[in-house]
Amino acid sequence: MDRVRRYLLKGLLAGGLGLLVLGSVGTSKVRASSVFDDRAVYIWEFASVLTIDADARRRFFERTDRLGIETVYLSWGALRTVSENDRRDLITAMHGAGLEVHALTGTYGPEGINDARRVVSMVVEHNAQSKDTDRFDGIHLNVEFASDGLSDSLEAYERFLDEVPEIGDGKTVSSQGLTVSATVAWWWSLPEHTPSLARAIAAHPSLDYSVIMAYWDTPEEVRDRLATVVSDLDAPYVLAIETQKFPGTTANNRVTTYEEGWSRVKEIESAIATDPPGEGYLGIALHHYMNGLTAWDALWDARLQSSMVRPGDRVKIDTIVVFDDTFPTSSHESELTIAFDGPQRYTVNRAVTPPSSTLTDISVEWRVPRNAPAGEYAATVTLSDTTFEDESREKSAIRSTPVVLAKRDLGILSVTNPRRGRPN
C-alpha cells in the first residue's frame, strides 16, 4: 500500500472508528500522518549484509511484515561499502515489500554537521541518477553531540536544518519531495542545557517530524523523558525505543528493553499511544534491527517429532536458530531449554553457539525416564542468552540470570503406561 493510501486509511480508522493503531479497540491519540505510519526501524551496519545475503533479506522482510514496520532508516555509511547496483537492488526490493526507505546519517559532534551535509548531498545525487523504484523516500538525520558545548552545537545544528531543504546541485531535498526527520536526544532539553534550542529543533520547519530518543525500559520514565521535549509542542514526533544489547554487564541495562523483550516494547508503545505528551505523537522507531529485534526472533522454528511415547523412549526436538548480526560467534552462546510439564516436570538443556546470519539446525534428544508417570505433558522450548559481551562483542562473562529471548509451545507429548496403553 502506498504512503498516501495508508495515510487516508489511517485517518479514517482513527477518526471514524476510534481504533488503536496498535490493533486493539480503545482510545488512541496517535496523529494520522502522510509522512509516517506507526513503526520504523533503524538498520546500521547490517544494511550492507542485506544487499548481498538473500536469506537474511528474506528474513528481514518476514520480520518487518510480522511486526508492522512501515519505514526503514537505512545507513548510508553501510550502503557506501557496496556497489551502486547492490544498493539500488536493495532499495527496490524494500519498496516492493511496501516499505518507505530513508537514508540514515550517523554522525557525532560539531564536525558531524558537515558530515551530515555531505551525506544529504550524496543522497540527493543518488536519487537524481536513479529510477523511481531505486530512490530514497526520505532522509533521517542522526547527529549527536556531547554535553560540553551543547548550546553552541545545537545553534549550529539549527542553522544546518535551515539549509537542508535546498541542499543539492540542481535537484534538491525539496524538489525531490524527500521526507526529512531528525533525532533529538531527550536530555538536550534538561534545565542545565538549552531546553529552548532542543524544542526549536524538534519543531523545526525543515523537518516533517522529529524522533525523540527517550530511551528507558518503563513506560512511566519514557513518558517523563518525552515530556521534557514535547509537552508544550504541537510538532509531529516519533518515539525511539532502544532494543539492543549493550556491551558490559550492567551499565546500560535500564536504557534498553533488551532484557524485558518485545512484550515491554509493546507495553511502552501502547502506554504512549494512549496518553502521549504533546499533540504530535506519530508512532515508534525501533533502535535497532541487528541485536535486539533479531535476537528476540532467533528461535526461527521448533518441532516435537513425537506426540506419543513410552517410558524409556527417546524424544527428538528439532529447532532452527539464527542470529542475524555481524558479531563474533562467541556472542551467540545461548541455551535451549526443553520443558515437559505434566504429572511431573522434566527439563533438558543444550548450549548452542550458531554463527552469524546462518540458519542452524539444532536437535535435542531426551529419554523419557522409565519411572515417568503416564499422562499428557505440555512441551515448550526456550532460547536464553547466557552471556555478557565486551566492546568487541566477544563473550566476556556468564549471566547469573539468563535473558529469555524466545519461547515456543511444542504441543502435547503423551506418555503411555506400557501396561495400559493410552493415558486417560
Short description:
The chain has 424 residues and is of the alpha/beta class. The protein has helices spanning 3-17, 46-52, 54-67, 76-79, 84-96, 110-128, 150-163, 195-202, 219-230, 262-274, 289-296, and strands at residues 38-43, 71-75, 100-108, 138-144, 179-185, 209-213, 237-242, 281-287, 299-304, 308-309, 314-321, 334-341, 345-352, 360-367, 375-389, 395-415.
Question: Could you describe the 3D structure shown?
Answer:
InterPro entries: TAT_signal (IPR006311). The chain has 424 residues and is of the alpha/beta class. The chain has two domains: 293 residues, Glycosidases (TIM Barrel, Alpha-Beta Barrel); 118 residues, abc- transporter (atp binding component) like domain (Coagulation Factor XIII, Chain A, domain 1). Helices cover 30% and strands 30% of the residues. It is built from eleven helices and 16 strands. The protein has an eight-stranded parallel barrel with strand order 1-2-3-4-5-6-7-8, surrounded by six helices. Helix 2 packs across helix 3 and helix 2 crosses helix 5.
